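SAMPLE LOG
Freezer: B-3
Tube label: C17
Construct: single chain, 391 aa
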Amino acid sequence: MLFIVAICVFIVSFTVWLKLSLWKKIRRRLFPDNKHSVFNMLRDAAEYNFVGTSVNNSLYIDIVKYFCKKSKKFRHYPLFTYWLCGVKLVFIHKAEAIKDLLKEKRIIEKSTFYNFMKPYFGTSVFTCSQWKERRKLLSAGFHSTMLKGYVTVFNEHAQKLVEFLHEETGKEFTCVERPLSLCSLDIVCESILGVKIGALQSEAREYVSSLDRLSDMAMSRIWKVWQWPDFIFHFSKAYRELLQHLRIAHGFSRRECNRIYPPVPIFGRNITEEISICGYTIPKRTTVVVSPFLAHRDEDIFPDAEKFDPERFLPENSAHIPECAYIPFAAGPRGCIGRVFAEMEVKILVCHILRNFSLHSLDSRDQVLPIIKITLQSSQPARIKFRRRQQ
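STRUCTURE (predicted):
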């Protein structure tokens, strides 16, 4: 343990020294209050007295207060600087400075702090280097013409929110953040995905609660500088809580379902050039068939493969699954382009169904066998008994 602590201290010290050295090289740019010394850095750290608090959102309250105070202090300047551990931050808080930044087309790369959000959101349109292509594809769905078509959905859910709030009138007070968030979620899902999830009317809101907590944890890590290195964060209580909420938000049970019943059970490739696969030479003009359905039943990788075991995809277990051992939607350049959309759809549908019904299958897995067509299908209709949950 002492060895790990010593390494951490060395890495942090070296990082601080390196950042400070690099910053001194540009000191001629003369930022406001730009004292290039360790004492200036320690002063900022001393002012950063809210770093350990997080009860009842006090961390975020103190952060806002601190930087409001800082902004007032430098109100005659377009920007000010701040040391956050070994990182020198430049805050711009005047319109002219913001305009100069945003009109600079070469400055488009996101801050490295966005890396802390990858476990929550993945390499989405907000953090991915291919953001231009993805934004171009997504922009069509948010064109003004398309948005006009969503007005009906907005009105429908606004009316539901009003009905919800009517029931709250008999109470002494109502915390409006949650119903507003749930109403927004309903609108987004129906408008973008075309799926009605009824989040506002549902009582089972574990998924939504996990998303809220994940958002809090992402921001908290940014301000708790000792959690920046992944190898330190992975030993923290916050990381264990993160895994718990990610399992709910990402749904590892869904992954096990896709392992046993992959949507794309088989696909082929035409070999255009002679290649070698595991020491075997595959000649040109050969058709190679890949079967995720079979690959997912490899006992060397998935012991007792026919058993439904969601724990295979817990982080500590999935780390041992080799690349391409789990490919429910194929893989590579020709992999299913709608994979993310399909996964989102499943999450929303399952969330909606389980919130409203209890399910019981009338047939065992031995009776409903999978068959391979273009997609994986069942040999006979799956009979499920639905019962409305008690509200």
